[in-house]
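PT: before anyone asks, these are the final sequences, not the draft ones from last week. 389 residues across everything. Please model them as a single complex and drop the result in this thread when it's through.
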Amino acid sequence: MQLVSNRSAKLGTPLSEKERNIVGAPGAAEVRRFLPAFPIYAPTPLVALPGLADKLGVGAIHLKDEGQRYGLSSFKALGGAYAVARLVHEHVQKRLGRKVAPAELLTDEAKAIAAELTVSCATDGNHGRSVAAGAQMFGCRCVIFLHAHVSEGREKAIAAFGAEIRRTPGNYDQSIVEANETAAAEGWVTVSDFSWEGYRDIPGTVMQGYSIMMAEIDEAAPQGFTHVFVQGGVGGLAAVVAGHFFDRFGSNRPCLVVVEPTRATCLQASAARDERTAIEAGESTVMAMLECYEPSLAAWEILEKCADFYLDIPDEAAVAALKTLAGGEGGDPSLTIGESGTAGLAGLQAALADEAMRAALGLDKSSRVLLFGTEGATDPELYQKLLNS
Ligand SMILES: Cc1ncc(COP(=O)(O)O)c(C=O)c1O
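LR: through. Structure below.
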């Protein structure tokens, strides 16, 4: 386990207008404008965990529980489906030659036009489920690329939304390459949560979709936080969380720690080198949704400006945190949070157990900590196995 601080010369540089439109207040307002296209929208709970805070010796812990989001069981429901809605909206407006209200996307007329579009992406599970759900909701065709390590349970959950599944050999990063090549050849639209040079707009829209979660937190927690522990895969979520607090509070923002599996630390490695860095793929981690070996470009450019620390945690720590949340400490409610969703808590526990880290982060009895339970039991069989392990 290692704690790496952000030493970038860009730390503290204001977000660009475009970045604010993704992670700042303007981004969340734009998502709100589109909510009529999502009648199933409801804010998720911000759960107070006073028993756990007592046990760990901090002032307060709040966990944003994304386990029920849109019935898709992860915060990713907010991104892919929203990006599909935006693409369909643009296409329908163009075809009808007039402005179209977001709610109109749910009409038969709009769906017939949306059927002309095929959206596709590579995924390790949750993002693909969101894209597939969006495609089904708004009537377009969907093809999802899954790499060899994605479980059958996750495949079934995506296929249940009517998406065509294509299996690819190798890991997540390799599946991205295959998905992009196929989409380019077939004329499909790639709806990826991963961004690279020349491909920023759609991943930016995916991230903008997450930003409503931050608006919900603001409304539910007027007292605010001193520390935030948020898990990182390609960095999209962490960038939205860090960018939101930076945009709102500037240098008075809470201290933000990005937590990754020790087996997939592309964000930490990038911070250590002060440069977006791809790392070698290694042994797979139980935190399958965080198993990414290269940061998303659009996310990294925001993290450079406003993430404070990067911490890695071993697989056992995430599993232990899963059990802690399921058990409900000292009268806290029992929470079903999946193995990738507990990494933030595992990071907090690791930091508190290490004197040097605790001091570096300024964690003490008065700290008010925000965590993200980013998924429920998205692979129920695996969840049960880990719970009973
Ligand atoms: C449950 C869960 N948590 C966290 C993440 C990390 O998000 P990002 O890849 O944007 O860093 C993911 C990504 O798929 C996820 O599914």
